[in-house]
Task: structure prediction
Amino acid sequence: MNSIREIQALNKRELENCVPSSASWHTDYRDTAYLFIGGLSFDLTEGDIITIFSQFGEPVWLKLARDKETGKSKGFAFLKYEDQRSTDLAVDNFSGATVLDRIIRVDHTRYKKRDDENDEEFDVTVRPPKELLERSEEKRRHRHRHHRHRHGAENDERIKDPAKSRLEDRGGLDPDDEDPMKDYLAREREKGRRKSDGRKREHRSRELLAD
Result:
């Protein structure tokens, strides 16, 4: 297998020389759809790896090396794509990439299965990784709890305060709320009334003087 620097140098040289895909160094691995992935964070699970590498194709097989006693990740894995051409894209784009503050190494490989290895155990199309199913179910339960909590709280509030419920149904406008223009209009009406009374008194004074 090639190192990260070797892969980057090969790709750079092919780009500079406009090497066609038919003559690319990747053609040496047309007989394998497997990848070696090294330098992985120990926190990454099978589901995380599948999610990351699904950007360039459909993974059909994945084996994340784990300690037999503790079950903890050893930081490397083998992945197989449905389409062999996806391996070229993954190698070119992911080798030397940083995932969770760690530089990962991705390269073609010809994986050899052990005689006692159960192929279906790592076949993600037949039986998806357990944590993928568990995570999906947990997300579904979380959304359900959040939905019930939010709507349940709203319903409880509406029951406690029917007036508030009616107010919300009207879009938040309560006709009984004090009109902010009420005082202004009252003052204007008072001014108008005073002016009218003044004119009446003036008119009455003129009539008395005329008499």
User: Anything to note?
Assistant: Residues 62 and 194 are 91 Å apart (CA to CA).
